[in-house]
Amino acid sequence: MPIIEASPGVSLAYETFGDPSDPAVLLVMGFSAQMIAWHEDFCRALAARGRYVIRYDNRDCGLSTKLDHHPVDIGRFINAVSSGDLSSAFAMAPYTLRDMADDGLGLLTALGIERAHVVGSSMGGMIAQTMAISRPERVRTLTSMMSSTGEPEYGRPSAEAQAVVSGPKPADREGYVAAAEAELLWASKRYGKAAPLRELAARSYDRAYYPAGAGRQLGAMILGGSRADALRELRVPTLVIHGLDDTLIDPSGGRRTAELVPGAKLLLLPDMGHDRPRELWPEIIDALDTHTR
Predict the structure, then answer these.
(1) Does an H or E element contain 263, and which?
(2) Other C-beta atoms within 10 Å of 197: how many?
(3) Which of 86-95, 180-189, 231-240 shows the lowest mean pLDDT across its residues?
(4) What percent of the chain has pLDDT over 70?
(5) d(Cα 74, Cα 181) in Å, to the nearest integer?
(6) Buried b / exposed e across 235-248, counting CB within 10 Å, b at 16+?
(7) CB neighbours (10 Å) of residue 115?
(8) Contact (Cβ atoms closer than 8 angstroms) between residue 241 and residue 143
(9) For residue 46, what pLDDT is reported?
(10) What is the pTM of this model?
(11) From CA 218, how far away is CA 51, in angstroms rounded?
């Protein structure tokens, strides 16, 4: 697995699919999820459409740089945010979404790619939006998938989903894999299955079990603030994809993103939750193919 320095002190593990002479598509994964959550078959299918597909581990996840020297207590952090003590919350968070966006852009630079189509999922959508806002000349198109704008009134999780995502996960492999089934709560009602969730959890655990990074990523995401004003000014061609079964980031987050970005296209998928079920890959890949031409 190649690893390359993308930002000062931060190296990213990445993998590519397809011909480097084809237009580049950078896939940005979400909160605490490794790049393998972009399934190899999905990446190959997109590459077969004439795209050079790049997936990577965000900092503090997978095989990329981990900031062990800056531990974050998730409970204390959430309490600080909930009580309005933002100065303490900011002091706990060692980096921002902008830093994570700069990592992805730095990866492109290190690979000799000046401009790319950027596709972000969940927190990855927030990072991708930040890339397009901060460096629009580097982003050929933006695709924001199952994400939101940073405005607290949009994209809110259900109480049940919030409890699952913020709760501790078992540290042992067997328990960790079994706990993945709880993610069915926000998966596609029609296509969601326990087996793929367990399989990804097992692969992720074996590849790089690292719960300590979640607190720092959560800090970057929560403290990112609203991107609404910047999205209103964005002039990068934008596609927004959201599943109507999503209870982790409510579809209002996707609708709001498309509402704010001038000329954005909105694709709402009735049978998608906060997941990308294989049965919907053809529709998603068709949409990406069309958008990134």
Answers:
(1) none
(2) 19
(3) 86-95
(4) 100
(5) 22
(6) ebbbbbbbbebbbb
(7) 15
(8) yes
(9) 98
(10) 0.96
(11) 31
48: its two tokens: 């077969």
Asked whether residue 165 is assigned to any structural domain, the reply reads no
Burial of 229 per CB tally in 10 Å (0-12, 13-18, 19+): exposed
**Is 222 or 155 the better-scoring residue by pLDDT?**
155
Question: What is the total count of domains within the chain?
Answer: 1
Residues in the chain: 293
CB-based contact 35:276 (threshold 8 Å)? no
- Establish how many alpha carbons lie within 13 A of residue 158's alpha carbon, considering only the half-sphere containing its beta carbon: 14
- Residues spanned by the domain of 62: 3-157+211-291
Interval 101-124 mean pLDDT: 98
Q: Encode burial over 58-84: b for 16+ CB neighbours within 10 A, e otherwise.
A: bbbbbbbbbbeeeebebeebbebbeee
Mean pLDDT of 145-162: 96
Q: Residue 194 in contact with residue 181, Cβ under 8 Å?
A: yes
Distances (CA, A) of 248 to 68, 95, 148, 244, 252: 28, 24, 11, 11, 11
pLDDT the model gives residue 110? 97
SS3 at position 144 = strand
CATH code assigned at 263: 3.40.50.1820
The residues facing 56 across adjacent strands are 14
Residue 254 located in a structural domain: yes
Q: Cβ neighbours of residue 83 under 8 Å, at least 6 residues apart?
A: none
CA atoms within 13 A on the CB side of 133: 23
Q: What's the confidence (pLDDT) of residue 275?
A: 97
Place of tokens 């940073």: 150
Any domain includes 178: no
Q: How far apart are CA 162 and CA 283, in angstroms?
A: 28
Asked whether residue 163 is domain-assigned, the answer is no
- How confident is the model over 264-277, as pLDDT tens digits? 999 999 999 999 99
Strands 24-28 and 3-7: unpaired
